Amino acid sequence: MSIYDTIKETLRAGRKGILATVVNRTGSAPRDVGARMFVDENGKSDGTVGGGLLEFQVEKAAIERKDSSAATIIHFQMNAKTVAEQGMLCGGNVDVLLEPVIAKHGELYQRLADMERKGKKGIVVTSLTDSFTKTLIDDSLGITGDAMNESSAMRYLNVVTQGRPVISDDGAFLIEPVFNRTRLYIFGAGHVSQFISKIASMVDFAVVVIDDRQDFANAVRFPEADEVIVDDFTKAFSSLPFSGNEFVVIVTRGHSHDAVALREALSKDARYIGMIGSKRKVKMVFDLMRESGFSDEAISNVHAPIGLAIDAETPQEIAVSIVGQLIQIRAE
């Protein structure tokens, strides 16, 4: 579940809060631009901006501003002295946007949650003046939130060219790209998949679980997944968006299903493809891929056996090794 889902639930319950977003970072600060933490009016938080002293300071500042009706950017400095005194692992400086989360922007957060799941692009324009406004502009110039004319929307879309937040020339607005979490497609809904889904969700992957068995692929077994799809593996691929940044993990119930999923995955533009299995099973499936016309070069990009070499044995350990590899590849 994304942070926007938490915000939606909070607003539905009639509560409000403060959303903290890292909008600039220098040095070795713990989290990159786009990291978010939501703090509701009762002080309950979801998400993270880096943990430790920084997170404590941001959460404190958010609670102090819980009744504020304006957005502001606060600078947090973690110099060498602070790092040494607090025993911190990271230093650097961080700029954090603190903005009120209020009912009138409920539709905007709903749209952001949908865009995140579907990998859609756009920008969010947030005012930094006393008159707080927030507008979401998708890449087809669709407007959600506070009104904005088309010429202004087009101008702001053209401002964000490097995928980083920008403050307008007059200092009145922050323009942020919509930060979409990396999508992870898990094919197979067995025990290993359950733990992969849990851990991957914890480290900010947008998790989609696919299996043709409804008894296995359901929200009860995968409550943290962003989406659970019950469908034939081949058919499922036709409904999944691929932009070249998606991760595919194949952990089905047998090598025939693995082969079906891998054949479809190799036909897509994916950043990572991994398949579980013994060396014998992997060789068998790879041979089938060659017979299907895939080159050795394409097959060599598949991570199989999957995961980091940590002598994992239990489903939990195997999931740790797999998600560890996903994190490693995502950071490259």
Question: Which labels suit this protein?
Answer:
five-stranded antiparallel sheet; 36% helix; 24% strand; 11 helices; alpha/beta; 15 strands; 332 residues; 3 domains; Rossmann fold
Short précis:
The protein has helices spanning 3-12, 52-64, 80-86, 106-118, 150-159, 191-202, 233-239, 255-266, 279-291, 296-300, 315-330, and strands spanning 17-26, 36-40, 45-47, 72-78, 92-101, 122-127, 134-138, 143-145, 166-167, 173-177, 183-187, 206-211, 227-230, 247-250, 272-275.
Total number of beta strands: 15
| SSE ordering | HEEEHEHEHEEEHEEEHEEHEHEHHH
Supply the CATH class of the largest domain. Alpha Beta
Arrangement of strands in the largest sheet? 3-2-1-5-4
Name the structural class. alpha/beta
Oligomer: single chain
Shape: elongated
**Mean pLDDT metric:** 89
Estimated helix fraction: 25-40%
Give the total of domains.
Answer: 3
Structural topology:
Blueprint: H1 3-12, E1 17-26, E2 36-40, E3 45-47, H2 52-64, E4 72-78, H3 80-86, E5 92-101, H4 106-118, E6 122-127, E7 134-138, E8 143-145, H5 150-159, E9 166-167, E10 173-177, E11 183-187, H6 191-202, E12 206-211, E13 227-230, H7 233-239, E14 247-250, H8 255-266, E15 272-275, H9 279-291, H10 296-300, H11 315-330
